[in-house]
C-alpha cells in the first residue's frame, strides 16, 4: 500500500480506503462487513469512511461493532463521519443541517455508533444555505479543541464556500478545513481538476474522493442494462440509477472505448479506473465501496496498475473519454 499526506497536514492516509455508503447494513451484513474490514486492514488500508445518513445511522453501527470485534489498534486506522442530512427519516430542522446544535450532537451520536472516542475526520456533507458558514466553522473548532475531532473538512462544497471557511477560520483563529470529499472519476473531473485547483495551492487542501467507478458504470457491468444484484437495482436508490444510467448513451460509449485499454494491460476496467484517479497528485485517497470480499480484493489490486499508467497509456485513456 502507498500512503499519502492529507493535503499539507501531517496525517498520512492509505492511497486506497474503504467506505460504507449504500452497502453497510443493507447489501452488507455484519459478517460480510467484518470480512471486508479485516481484508482491507490486512492490505494496508488505514481509513474507513462513513456518515450519519448512511442507512440512517445503521452503517455506522455496523462498522463500529465490527471494528470493536476485530480489535484493531486504534492508532492503526482512521475513521470518519459526515454531518448534514441527519440520521433519521424525515428529520426535524434541528436533526439535520450544519447548525452548531446539529454539528455537535451529530458528532456525539457518531462517536456512540462507531464506538470510538474521537473522529479522525469529520466532514460537512453538503453546504447548508440556512446556516452561516462562520457558525459551522466555530462548531468544528469547538469539537477539535475538545478532542472529539482531529481534522474537519467539507464534501461537495463549492470552491468559494471553502475559501470563505478558510478566511473565517483565519480571522477568528479557528481550525480551518483540511480536506474536501468530492466525486472524482474518469467521467466526472471538472471540479477536482479545475475548480479546486486554487485550494490546493493556497490552502493545501487534501481530497478523499468518492465514486471512482462512477457508481459502477466504469466497471462495464451496466453496458447492457442493470443486473438485478447490482447497487443500482436496490430499492430506494432509483435516484442513483437515474443519475448513472439516465444520462444517455455517451458515457456508456466512453466506457466501451476504455475496455480495450484495460484488456491490453491485462487488468480489469475497474482497476484501470481506480488507478487513474491516483495519477492525480491532489488525490489523497480513493475511497472504495464493495459488497463482497472478492470484489474489494480485486479493486485493491489497482495499486499494482498505477505504475503502468504513464505516457502512451494515459494518452490513450484521454482519447477514449474525450
In brief:
With 322 residues, the protein is an alpha/beta fold.
Could you walk me through the main structural features you see in this protein, from its secondary elements to its overall organization?
Helix 1 packs across helix 2, helix 2 crosses helix 3 and helix 9 packs antiparallel against helix 12 (311-321). This protein is globular. Strand 3 (16-19), helix 1 (30-42) and strand 4 form a beta-alpha-beta unit. It has one domain: TIM Barrel (Alpha-Beta Barrel). Helices cover 42% and strands 13% of the residues. The longest helix has 16 residues, at 250-265. The protein is built from 12 helices and 10 strands. The strands form 2 sheets. The chain has an 8-stranded parallel beta barrel with strand order 3-4-5-6-7-8-9-10, surrounded by 4 helices. The chain has a two-stranded antiparallel sheet with strand order 1-2. The mean pLDDT is 94. The chain is of the alpha/beta class and 322 residues long. 45% of the residues are buried. The protein has helices spanning 30-42, 58-70, 100-114, 133-145, 159-172, 190-195, 197-203, 238-245, 250-265, 269-279, 293-300, 311-321; strands at 3-5, 12-14, 16-19, 47-49, 78-83, 119-124, 149-154, 179-180, 206-209, 285-288.
Amino acid at each position: 500500500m502507498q500512503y499519502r499526506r492529507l493535503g499539507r497536514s501531517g496525517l498520512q492516509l492509505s492511497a486506497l480506503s474503504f467506505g460504507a455508503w449504500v452497502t453497510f447494513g443493507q447489501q452488507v451484513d455484519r459478517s460480510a462487513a467484518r470480512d471486508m474490514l479485516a481484508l482491507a486492514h490486512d492490505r494496508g488500508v488505514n481509513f474507513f469512511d462513513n456518515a450519519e445518513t448512511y442507512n440512517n445511522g445503521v452503517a455506522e453501527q455496523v462498522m463500529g461493532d465490527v471494528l470493536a470485534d476485530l480489535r484493531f489498534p486504534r492508532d492503526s486506522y482512521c475513521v470518519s463521519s459526515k454531518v448534514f442530512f441527519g440520521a433519521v427519516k424525515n428529520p426535524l430542522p434541528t436533526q439535520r443541517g450544519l447548525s452548531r446544535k446539529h454539528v455537535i450532537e451529530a458528532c456525539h451520536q457518531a462517536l456512540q455508533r462507531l464506538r470510538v472516542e474521537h473522529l479522525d475526520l469529520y466532514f460537512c456533507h453538503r453546504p447548508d444555505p440556512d446556516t452561516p458558514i462562520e457558525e459551522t466553522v466555530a462548531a468544528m473548532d469547538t469539537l477539535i479543541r475538545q478532542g472529539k475531532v482531529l481534522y474537519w473538512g467539507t464534501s461537495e462544497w463549492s470552491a468559494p464556500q471553502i475559501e470563505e471557511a478558510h478566511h473565517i477560520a483565519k480571522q477568528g483563529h479557528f481550525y480551518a478545513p483540511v480536506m474536501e470529499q468530492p466525486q472524482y472519476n474518469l467521467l466526472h473531473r471538472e471540479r477536482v481538476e479545475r475548480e479546486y485547483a486554487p485550494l490546493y495551492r493556497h490552502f493545501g487542501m487534501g481530497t478523499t474522493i468518492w465514486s471512482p467507478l462512477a457508481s459502477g458504470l466504469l466497471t462495464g457491468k451496466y453496458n447492457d442494462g442493470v443486473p438485478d444484484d447490482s447497487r443500482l437495482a436496490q430499492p430506494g436508490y432509483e435516484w442513483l440509477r437515474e443519475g448513472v444510467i439516465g444520462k444517455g448513451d455517451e458515457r456508456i460509449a466512453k466506457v466501451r472505448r476504455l475496455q480495450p485499454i484495460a484488456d491490453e494491460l491485462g487488468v480489469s476496467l475497474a482497476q484501470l479506473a481506480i488507478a487513474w484517479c491516483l495519477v492525480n497528485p491532489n488525490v489523497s485517497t480513493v475511497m472504495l465501496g464493495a459488497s463482497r470480499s472478492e470484489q474489494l480484493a480485486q479493486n485493491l489490486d489497482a495499486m499494482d496498475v498505477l505504475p503502468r499508467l504513464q505516457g502512451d497509456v494515459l494518452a490513450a485513456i484521454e482519447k477514449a473519454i474525450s
